[in-house]
Amino acid sequence: MVIRKNRLSRLWAARDGLGAVEFGFIAPFLLTLLLGVIDFGMAYWRQMEIANAADAGAQWGMSNAYNIDSIRTVARSATNLATSDVNVEPSNPCGCASDSGVTVYSCSGLCPDSSAPKPYIIVNARICHSTLFTWPGLVYCSTGDSNCTGCTGNQISLSAQSVVLK
Hints:
Elements: H1 2-13, H2 18-63, H3 68-77, E1 87-91, E2 94-98, E3 101-104, E4 118-130, E5 155-165
Antiparallel strand pairs: 1-4, 2-3, 2-4, 4-5
Helix pairs in contact: 2-3
């Protein structure tokens, strides 16, 4: 009985390998945190690339004659993303500026403040992004969502809009 009690007390007091056991408990949390930082960092980078593409297309449209194909080419060239993945939709409506943005009006009509509508260049850019994991709280694409055209159910839609006065 004394030998058994002595072994048990030595085992209980042992500190060898304690760091490995503690790391085994904390490693899954650290790995999840690291993967989350990488996954959301990639999504944020792609969002910035899409915003830069929309800005480049709008700036080019402002400085040159309105041409849909040229604006798309410039916007896609302004990003490091695969150009086939980037969806760019430019438009050239007349509109009136307001506190909430630009409201589209007929070019021959009048704005609410009785001024004439001005031509704008609006460039919408969008890309589908696949996350490494299905993260709770993210809104993933579904078949009925018009913002997710071309995206699958395990992707999120990243989009940006740039508006400039022509």
